[in-house]
Specification:
8 strands; about 270 residues; eight-stranded parallel β-sheet; TIM Barrel; 8 helices
Length: about 270
């Protein structure tokens, strides 16, 4: 386990409702606390997953909050009953944002027209409820930014989570006053090195950090862990790489990104 920081961190995206955490969630939470993480946003990616995320947030009330949404992979199942269920989930005090929603044309697990309908439906719902949105985009930028431009003024806040895109895409999001979530992708010397070149473009009041656990294990962890399962405690490795890329201290980046998360999710 990484050593403890002397400053607080907030993980804005961890899938703690995932089956891989069912046997040792208590330990995972404790490990996160031990390294200085003060809050975790538990991501909802389907109706079932959003209910599981809320259950975690309600069990660890002082330490976790959650989101409620339907990921593009699950978009084929999005219908009028989904809207009713999401509205009910959003009424809970521990649910702080609508999502994870967006477009994923890389996997295409759901038809693209279904993905677009589900995204637009959740943007409409978030606007109606005056909730921030937690967004996913992979290889669907054209349709994605088009819908965001249409709805952005009606949304209080929006974050593109797990940003892995191009400088041009980043500039489009910043033009819409959107927040950016950075994960262990930036620690991947094979796929994420391009982010090092333009992460400085993100205004310091719109940058947030996340693990996307159990996915995206940072490749900078030494010694290399036996398990590929990522955990919130590994947020310290994301922090270290982001601070290095920005030429700032870890303390400075931790304090600013944590305050951004508190403000964004009204923690």
């Amino acid at each position: 386990m990484p050593s403890k920081n002397s400053y607080p961190l907030i993980d804005i995206g961890a899938n703690l409702g995932h089956d891989s955490f069912s046997a040792d969630l208590e330990q995972i939470i404790d490990d996160a606390m031990q390294v200085g993480i003060e809050h975790i946003m538990v991501t909802g990616t389907s109706l079932e997953g959003s209910r599981a995320a809320l259950a975690v947030a309600e069990k660890y009330t002082e330490f976790c909050s959650s989101t409620a949404g339907v990921h593009p992979h699950e978009a084929a199942d999005y219908d009028d009953q989904t809207v009713i269920a999401l509205r009910e989930l959003a009424s809970h005090a521990r649910v702080k944002a609508m999502g994870e929603t967006g477009l994923d044309y890389f996997r295409d697990y759901s038809p693209r027209d279904a993905q677009q309908r589900a995204l637009e439906g959740q943007l409409e719902l978030a606007a109606d409820l005056h909730m921030p949105v937690f967004l996913h985009q992979r290889e669907g930028h054209g349709n994605f930014i088009g819908l965001l431009r249409e709805y952005r003024n009606a949304l209080p806040r929006a974050v593109v989570h797990c940003f892995t895109g191009t400088e041009s895409e980043l500039r489009d999001y910043l033009e819409l006053d959107m927040h950016i979530g950075v994960t262990g992708w930036i620690c991947d010397e094979r796929r994420g090195h391009h982010l090092h070149e333009f992460i400085h473009l993100i205004p310091e009041n719109r940058l947030m950090l996340e693990t996307d656990a159990p996915y995206l294990l940072p490749r900078t962890i030494r010694p290399k862990p036996k398990s590929r399962r990522n955990v919130p405690a590994n947020l310290v490795y994301v922090l270290a790489k982001v601070a290095e890329c920005l030429g700032k201290t870890e303390k400075n980046v931790a304090e600013k990104t944590s305050q951004n998360a508190r403000d964004f999710f009204a923690l």
